[in-house]
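Why run this: before we spend reagent on co-expression, it is cheaper to look at a predicted model of the complex and decide which construct boundaries make sense. The entries below are exactly what would go into the expression plan.
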Amino acid sequence: MTSPDSNVRRICDQDSVESSVAELASYVLNNLPANNRAAIVGIRTRGWVLAQRVFKRLADSGQAGIELGALDITLYRDDLSTLGSQPIVGKTEINFPIDGCTVFLLDDVIYTGRTVRAAIDALIEFGRPAAIRLAVLVDRGHREYPINADHAAIEVETTADNIVEVRLLEVDGEDAVDLITR
Amino acid sequence: MTEQQSNLDLPLPTGSAESDSIFSAATPYQKRHLLDLESLSRGELERILHDSEGFRQVLFRPVKKLPTLRGKTVVSLFFENSTRTRTSFEVAAKALSADIINFSVSTSSVSKGESLYDTADTVKALGADFIVMRHHSAGAPHFLANLMKEVSILNAGDGCHEHPTQGLLDIFTIAQRKKRIEGLTVAIVGDILHSRVARSNIWGLTKLGAKVRLVGPRTLIPTCFKDLGVETHYKLKDGLEGADVINVLRIQRERMEANLFPSIREYVLMYGITKKRLAWAKSDAILMHPGPVNRGIEVDQDVADGPQSTITEQVTNGIAVRMAALYLLAGARDT
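The model came back. Tokens follow.
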């Protein structure tokens, strides 16, 4: 994955990932709409893992009535026409009405803003949400589209040749965030 | 509160949060064309089937539209009659936001004697990115694929050779119902000799580890098919016993000029699938038919409409696998 001379700096260990997830959960909790339904929707793959963790925290704390969904944005990407691009198509699971719902959209990293653009397009195919709030684990800057997170648990200064690698227990075997310099 | 309960039942990810598919997406599909299932690897087959699941979901949404192939043009070029395959490709292309143009062969210059290559070259010059093609000669799409590098050719049936998207949708339908392909026994019943559907099913199913039986009159099962690693049965009961899947082929009256069986009535008496005969297979066996169905000939009315029948599911699944095929060909590397 990384060449031997690349430089890896650990930004978050297991404890700080967990406390960041707790922070995302309290952001959702503090911003739940008073009058309409709410849903937590994660962008596959790691945003979906985060969404399930946040959902579980809210459920464990007795917060009832929140929906949970997964979004696969592959078919909405803007780079599909470039040669040799053939990302694997995953499943979107939005099994509740989006109309009038406040959707908390979760992802691991916000970078150019293109993923979030695709996610919004994918989401509004299902209806007209009351609002979409974006919550991410890491904001690494360098936006190319005018999109910002409503809440970012961690903000990191990066350069264009950095890679921010979020590793989550469920898919990567550990919780960590690494900043890799190529 | 009940909503809350159902959400809590959602499985939390263990190991892989990505996919509950029985098919692996690990192998990319790198061919520019989809000509047959014979030339595909197991991995390539699995990749198409895996991605089809994602596309199938879209068909159940209120808005059945994806922006994925915006600006691409699909031309359907049918030298033989077809309603369902042609319409299915049309629905698939439209759901992906591609433009689809039906090139009507009978009213075109083809009827004035234009060659296949010139017709296809014209279609290409009109800006086609994909040609969906059905032709009465086996190998016609392969011939064009060798000549046209920039256009993706999808074989929608070539003579008695192959009908790859039908094979894929049949396998996909089996997987949806049975949650596996490996180890299943699939009986293909009817006119194997003239069936491109049978050939595509045989290649696909055997590559994925299913056992295939061919069942029908001796005159309609070429003996050389044993070389493909399949069993042949001339008695319906032997062929159906223990089967998980029965795929019934249409008796193609238009191809029956050679008197391969005495009469339709005799065929029905010996090979028509009735409720009683369906019970010779496993009790949870599914009954498939590529359509159009000759009710009362190869399948009885109450069997075709019964709970074991997957005939209408096959139509829906056909759209999904054709969407997956168009999507994967659009992103293929091989030129």
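Helices of chain A lie at 14-30, 46-60, 114-124, 169-172. The first strand of chain A starts at residue 7 and ends at 12. Bring this page to Monday's planning discussion.
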